[in-house]
Design the sequence.
């Protein structure tokens, strides 16, 4: 146990500080939260100034803001700013009720930035891990045009629609993933517990075993005797894969190849293009220049390959091409969508037409997601049937042969 000094804010927004005894800084942070205090800093008492163990709340507690919390923040900021409440007062109220310590800490930092003379967009841009670039840009446009409440409303609707699409995707893939995990667990149990028992029976008769049986027993022996090696290989492979994805080339290659996966690749592509269409429509409607809007959406779509193709579109527009011709060169859009873009450019209602593009893709994604389970189920059943057949032939054929020998 150690004595810690802390500072924080109560639920009513009042600043608090004091000392408490706790097992660790993390334990004290949990105690303060349970008591309705949002911790800001925690440091161990009694240390010299050069050795102060000072920690921000973002170092102690979850370092991620969920999309639901960001949607709630945008909707609340819309209501508060529309009602004419000053920005600092609105942020102070939201920070005192925020359940996520990272969000609360970020809002307090934003208040300090605003008090030092920064704009709201600049204060948000300091925290890119919390606020996406599209939100910062929309707020900046809203501040310049005097429509800050509308900016928050548009981003809130955009995030809600994006979350709904992501939830549909997760729901469609939940069953197939559960079945695959169950299959691998069953294989592990058979390899470690069941097959070694049959191996002892076969060894007693010194009979020649079928090829399938020898393969199954050999695989089981390898897993039982070298499981630590397999675990090591998997850890090394996963670490190498994660580091590869952290590189620009690795992320680009992976994002390109996953769009070509059977069954789900086209769905992933259309989900990405839904994000582009909605974000572009929102930015264009707010008066952001086309090239800047594409640059913002390229970083917001969540796919490096699609982002690179959108950057190609931006380069084409900068050379004087129309949006439709640039989109044709990107090879991302279907002829129907390209025609809708052309009509939007001709009529001057590009933002409205891109909203229609997003709705068009959403209908297609919803239809494909409904069919996804029906398409995956036969593949899973076939795979499971082949696995059961191999296991059955490998285990029971020798038993039948031994029974024939004993009976004869």
Sequence:
């Amino acid at each position: 146990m150690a004595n810690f000094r802390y500072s924080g804010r109560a639920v009513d927004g009042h600043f608090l500080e004091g000392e408490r005894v706790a097992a660790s800084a993390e334990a004290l942070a949990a105690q303060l939260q349970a008591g309705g205090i949002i911790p800001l800093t925690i440091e161990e008492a009694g240390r010299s100034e050069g050795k102060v163990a000072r920690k921000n709340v973002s170092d102690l507690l979850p370092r991620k803001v969920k999309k639901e919390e960001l949607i709630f923040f945008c909707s609340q900021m819309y209501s508060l700013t529309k009602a004419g409440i000053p920005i600092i007062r609105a942020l102070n109220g939201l920070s005192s009720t925020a359940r996520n310590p990272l969000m609360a800490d970020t809002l307090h930092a934003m208040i300090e930035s605003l008090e030092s003379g920064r704009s709201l967009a600049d204060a948000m841009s300091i925290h890119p891990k919390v606020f996406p670039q599209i939100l910062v840009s929309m707020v900046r446009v809203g501040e310049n045009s005097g429509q800050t409440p509308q900016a928050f409303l548009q981003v809130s609707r955009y995030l809600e629609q994006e979350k709904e699409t992501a939830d549909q995707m997760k729901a469609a893939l939940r069953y197939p993933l559960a079945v695959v995990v169950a299959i691998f667990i069953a294989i592990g149990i058979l390899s470690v517990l069941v097959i070694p028992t049959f191996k002892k029976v076969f060894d007693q008769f010194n009979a020649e075993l079928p090829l399938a049986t020898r393969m199954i027993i050999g695989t089981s022996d390898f897993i039982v005797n070298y499981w630590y090696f397999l675990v090591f290989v998997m850890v090394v492979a996963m670490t190498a894969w994660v580091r590869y994805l952290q590189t620009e080339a690795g992320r680009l290659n992976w994002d390109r190849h996953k769009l070509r996966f059977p069954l789900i690749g086209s769905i992933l592509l259309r989900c990405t293009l839904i994000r582009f269409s909605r974000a572009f429509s929102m930015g264009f409607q707010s008066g952001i220049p086309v090239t800047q809007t594409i640059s913002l959406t390229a970083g917001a779509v969540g796919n490096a390959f699609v982002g690179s193709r959108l950057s190609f579109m931006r380069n084409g527009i900068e050379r004087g091409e129309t949006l439709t011709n640039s989109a044709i060169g990107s090879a991302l859009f279907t002829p129907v969508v390209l025609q809708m873009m052309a009509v939007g450019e001709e009529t001057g209602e590009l933002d409205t037409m891109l909203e229609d593009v997003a709705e068009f893709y959403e209908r297609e994604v919803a239809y494909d997601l409904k069919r996804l389970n029906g398409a995956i189920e036969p593949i899973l059943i076939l795979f499971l049937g082949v696995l059961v057949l191999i296991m059955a032939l490998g285990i029971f054929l020798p038993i039948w042969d031994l029974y024939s020998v004993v009976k004869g």
